[in-house]
Write a structure and sequence with these properties.
The protein is an all-alpha fold. The chain has helices spanning 2-18, 30-48, 56-63, 69-84, 89-102. Residues 4-13 and 15-21 have low confidence and may be disordered.
């Protein structure tokens, strides 16, 4: 099982971008950057304050209506990143939002990948 997870991480983060597959979807508009930056703020605050990881997606689904597959995938990535991050919720959100807008939706670097 551990080797499968290692292989999956390798393909997702290293091989896929180099082969032309994007492991991280692009944000499609400035408005979506702003909404997802707000999402990042809340999800990081929940994680920082000890809300159980399994509950966060359910709480966020009640708060944010992300209808597109793209938005849902980015939210899933933000949930995971927020658990492991040490930044304040404010800084986590600002860093995401600034990168998203400055890079015109290419947020791969925020998640540790380059496409």
């Amino acid at each position: 099982m551990k080797s499968f997870i290692t292989f999956f991480v390798f393909i997702s983060l290293i091989a896929a971008p180099r082969l032309g597959f994007s492991a991280v979807p692009r944000v499609t508009s400035t408005e979506q950057c702003e909404v997802l930056a707000g999402y990042a703020l809340v999800v990081r605050a929940l994680a920082k304050n000890g809300v159980k990881t399994a509950k966060i997606p359910h709480i966020m689904a009640d708060t944010y209506q992300l209808n597109s597959k793209n938005g849902q995938e980015i939210a899933r990535l933000l949930n995971r990143k927020a658990e492991l991050d040490n930044r304040t919720p404010h800084q986590f959100s600002v860093d995401f939002g600034v990168m998203c807008i400055e890079k015109q939706g290419d947020i791969s670097k925020f998640f540790g990948t380059n496409t």
